[in-house]
Amino acid sequence: MLFGESGPLGGAAWTAPTVRSGWLQGLRSLAQHPGALRFLADCGAVDTIFSLQGDSSLFVASAAGQLLVHILALAMRGPAEGHPSPQGCDWPACAQKIVCHVEDSLRSTATLQVTQALNVLTTTFGHCHSPWTQGLWVRLSPLVACLLEKDPIPASHSLVDLLLSVARSPVGSSDCGLWETLAQTLSHLSPTQAGPLALGILKLQDCPQALKTQAFGVLLQPLACVLKAAAQAPGPPGFPEGATGDSITVDTFLSSKSACVGLLCQALAHLELLQLLPQRPSPWPQAPLLRAAVAILRFCHGSAAPTSDVGGHLCAVLAGCVRVQRAALDFLGTLSQGTGPQELVTQVFAVLLEYLTSPDSSPMVLKKAFQATLRWLLGSPKAPSCCDLDPHTQLFLGELLPVLRKRLCSPCWEARDSGLEFLTQVTRHWGGQAAFRHALLASEVPELTGQLLRDPESYVRASAVTATGQLSSWGLYATPTGPEHPEVQQESLFTELLHILSTDSEGFPRRAVMHVFTQWLKDGHADVAEDLEQFVARVLQAASQDLDWEVRAQGLELALVFLEQLLGQPGSRCPYAVALPEAAPPATLAQVLQALCRVQLFEFALRALFDCDRPVAQKSCDLLLFLKAKATPCGGPQEAGASPDVVSVEAALQRWQAGEQGQPLGELEPEAVMAVLRSMDLEGLRGMLAKSSDHMEKSPQSLLQDMLATVGVLGENEADCY
Amino acid sequence: MPEIRVTPLGAGQDVGRSCILVSIGGKNVMLDCGMHMGFSDDRRFPDFSYITRNGRLTDFLDCVIISHFHLDHCGALPYFSEMVGYDGPIYMTQPTQAICPILLEDYRKIAVDKKGEANFFTSQMIKDCMKKVVAVHLHQTVQVDDELEIKAYYAGHVLGAAMFQIKVGSESVVYTGDYNMTPDRHLGAAWIDKCRPNLLITESTYATTIRDSKRCRERDFLKKVHETVERGGKVLIPVFALGRAQELCILLETFWERMDLKAPIYFSTGLTEKANHYYKLFIPWTNQKIRKTFVQRNMFEFKHIKAFDRAFADSPGPMVVFATPGMLHAGQSLQIFRKWAGSERNMVIMPGYCVQGTVGHKILSGQRKLEMEGRQVLEVKMQVEYMSFSAHADAKGIMQLVGQAEPENVLLVHGEAKKMEFLKQKIEQEFRVSCYMPANGETVTLSTSPSIPVGISLGLLKREMAQGLLPDAKKPRLLHGTLIMKDSNFRLVSSEQALKELGLAEHQLRFTCRVHLHDTRKEQETALRVYSHLKSVLKDHCVQHLPDGSVTVESILIQAAAHSEDPSTKVLLVSWTYQDEELGSYLTSLLKKGLPQAS
């Protein structure tokens, strides 16, 4: 009655998938102990769940499958805990029913039903690790093995998932037959279907070496084919045995363009993942993989001269194929973790340069080419004699920088941006290398970077700000004023960045400026250190008026760095830290507070405390609490009492809290500020700010008010969406 | 049979987080990748696990298409591309590409504020995501790969909004995104050509509504603003940075100009200046009127609308302020609202949707005492108005678009189930096409008849021409030939050529049939009678009587023989080739009826 046709299934509401989904959720919360289970089983709920497995809604079908697993696990948790017999005579009735249903589905000729059964089993072996799963596998594995004998193999994707799930579970380690099944599956599936299984096998902690070799062979097949197709003459040794470019893979390559592209992309992605794993096959065929990646990129670029039929076909299919280019460049980048013979590395750089130079490279491909180049550059060995770059890298830099220069002038903003990002990264790592400095200064790249500070695209301006900031940190930012007056240049860059901070109409460049300034302050940039207070005061003044919340928040970040430099890290215990002791002695503290007043840090922080954007207020609260903690233990300057200064500060605070702007506070006395800080409940404020606005909106009281208010209101405005 | 499969992961019988998966001709395309304003937990994004289980996302999906910049259509994009890991191409129009990041930044801010999620998705992720975008022009056919092509059509709704046609071979789907069939103050009406797609996926927000004239709503809005300003009150209009804000700006600007009003109008956010900049940049996407007057004066160079400074909120006297965010849940709009709420002279106009729980939602549902943070209670005395300006097609507009595109099937998304049901019936009745309305997660499968291109040999065509019949495009004609399938190509050639190409010898296949006739005369005479009969019946055919006594009609051979057992019966042996199958059958049936009595 509760679950049959006369129950929910007959109701009109049942046609809505959300109702069915809700019904399943309800059942799931009901099915928490064996007693409830018996009730559900007796009422026919399990049959309804079976039928919902084939529901028209993916969400309902998936929830039904998961619920079945939950019920099965719950049923088995009861009296049959332990090692039930595979025949199932001692299994609880409910579990018996589910397993029989799974068995029937596995025998079905309808792929959909097989898929459902496989998915239920995958979840079961993925989540349940009790001994009974072993019995389950013994009982079902012959049926699963039968699926392998069909041609084509039904639901191959789900089958792969199941086999991997079993292999990862405790069942896998105790069942030798499983390895045979896996090996058999690998050889039965098409190359595209076998890829994910092969990767899954190679990720397993302990599985027989022979199986691993077979799986690795599957992943390498497509690249072996490429190598074979690209070979001009019998070349250097290729991949290990078992990966020689078999005829099935070749057939896939030749069958259609999408099959060829799909298989190659998949193989490249899988090998990329594998390369990063500690359990990757050893020895790792770095050299042939490199050759294959280079060959693929050349096929895509049209610079390969194939001699074989397959080669010609690949040339035609891959020419200009952005999808393969992206995958191959990512893969090539990952390969930079290993080494290779110099002749091969030279080829890698050559092909990367081809892509960076080519006008046909799409913006996305160009970005990936820059990323791969960066990885190869940073991975390249240092010259043995000194710590400078090796001659090959120096040679490459000589060719690369003109290309970079050209890209910085590209009409496409994505290209300019990727170029700037590359420049920033490479400078961050090599700013101190003499060869790099020399090559960079000889190119026009720094000047161009400076010009891009006025780019029409805000993203590019932001990247240019970051790049010039980085260049300047290494003394590499040159302006037309010439290198003989470094102090003039530096001043001009600071002014220029400050100008951007105060005038740029968009947030990204202004945020970038704040990041650069914070970094300069942290690094003790020579020109910042020259007049630290002046620098901080000017930056904070600009940041305080910014409309962008992130600029204001970053302003507080900069203020915190400044504070830490004056007062020491919060809770710093580092024996080498040059910071002051935890509580600064009063004399020093007084000086510090004076300095803070001079740069108007207090006014900035106190205003930010009532900022309409919560993250800004939160940061300011943290900063003031830090200051309060530093100042309080030693008593701080003398109590100021209710001096006129304190009164004016408190009045200003009240105005800001009410959202008014009011007049600037002007010169402040440190004593007054400290007195105000002590009197404020900053901890309470921090607690309140930590609760996001969701806290108010989602509170039961708010919900109740909304429900009460909504009664009787027409739904007119709910229809108006965006 | 090839098929088209459509699965909404969002916007199926629902409004919010539009995300529709389409499989067509072996290609998988994601249409929109939006978020749901009403949720701040997992449900805010479409459930992508259903596609990630199909293997690597970038391998499975051929492309993502974004119809316009509203967050319920693009809000999940950085999450999808930078966190879930989609690395393929994303297509959208140029204005959408330019404006999308602004909205996404706005959304990021809301997420940070509402949930404290500072690393929800970063600005860098938004940028990296935008770098994957390939911008498309209107009516330009973009080749995603060799087989898949897409084409954008103007959709109205908001700046840069587009409908997309997705085509693989002869199969095609059109996705409308959100659209508007009537022009408004700054945008034109949606338009599509008679592209006769297999399927039209259309939004159905106003499936049951025939909307009152927009003019009325505008008049109402202006009247309310004017009245408030006249009595010295302040008007707050909380908006999202883009979209409706621009339309309301044009509205107020023109009104201020016409009425020569002096009260200041302010825009509170830096973002909107940028938005206005884009509206100026993408003038070709606006409507004809704006485009025409553009040379004399750019509509978006506002004379009366100025940037807002926080200090202005305290100035005495009337003013109108546009402030973000649109739902009054945080930020500047909430700050101004708290200041102005206490005076009954002031007014707040909510021009859009508000999520439950937000201050915007509360005041719209009539609550007048709001509990704010820190146990403060805010008494709302100011007037609260709701004005809908959303630019969606109403029922009439949707029907109009279906009529324009002439699809074979229609699928409804982005609407409420009940309303969809009504429209579905209407569409099925009026256009006699099937209409579907899947819920989220439900798959609709449509079979399509494939059209397979076949090459025809010149020889065969020439021979056909030699028969004297001129080809007529409107009349199909029967053409005999041999279909050769080779290297996944189909060609129709003459049988001789086929034999030659395939290196095969010719075999003649003849059908034979015996017809028994009651005739006491000799065989030769029977044959002669058959000849005369056929000659008289088949006037258009060549009937011959051969010296050996047999009769031929084209390739059909008829011989008369005596019956071995019954001398009064003659047996006619009829044989024909397969080319004359039709005539052969006809002749046998004719002969079976017997011969006319000799006169």
UniProtKB/TrEMBL annotation, chain A:
Keywords attached to this entry: Cytoplasm
Broad class of the protein's primary localization: cytoplasm
Keyword hit for Cytoplasm: yes
CC terms in the record's Gene Ontology section: cytoplasm; nucleus
Biological process, per Gene Ontology: cell population proliferation; DNA damage response
Subcellular localization: Cytoplasm
Family statement drawn from the similarity comment of this UniProt entry: Belongs to the BRAT1 family.
Protein's name in the database: BRCA1-associated ATM activator 1 isoform X9
Organism: Camelus ferus
Lineage: Eukaryota, Metazoa, Chordata, Craniata, Vertebrata
Automatic annotation (TrEMBL), chain B:
Keyword field: Cytoplasm, Hydrolase, Metal-binding, Nucleus, Zinc
Similarity section: Belongs to the metallo-beta-lactamase superfamily. RNA-metabolizing metallo-beta-lactamase-like family. INTS11 subfamily.
Domain Beta-Casp, first and last residues per copy: 245-363
Residue ranges occupied by any Metallo-beta-lactamase domain in the UniProt entry: 16-233
InterPro entries, per database record: Beta_Casp, INTS11-like_MBL-fold, IntS11_C, MBL, Metallo-B-lactamas, RibonucZ/Hydroxyglut_hydro, RMMBL
Record keyword Zinc present: yes
GO cellular component, as recorded: cytoplasm; integrator complex
Cofactor(s) required, per the database record: Zn(2+)
Subunit composition and interactions: Component of the Integrator complex, composed of core subunits INTS1, INTS2, INTS3, INTS4, INTS5, INTS6, INTS7, INTS8, INTS9/RC74, INTS10, INTS11/CPSF3L, INTS12, INTS13, INTS14 and INTS15. The core complex associates with protein phosphatase 2A subunits PPP2CA and PPP2R1A, to form the Integrator-PP2A (INTAC) complex. INTS11 is part of the RNA endonuclease subcomplex, composed of INTS4, INTS9, INTS11 and inositol hexakisphosphate (InsP6). Interacts with WDR73; interaction is required for the assembly of the RNA endonuclease subcomplex in the cytoplasm.
Any GO BP: RNA polymerase II transcription initiation surveillance
Species the sequence originates in: Camelus ferus (Wild bactrian camel)
GO molecular function terms attached to this record: hydrolase activity; metal ion binding; RNA endonuclease activity
Name by which UniProt lists this protein: Integrator complex subunit 11
Main location: cytoplasm
Localisation per UniProt entry: Cytoplasm; Nucleus
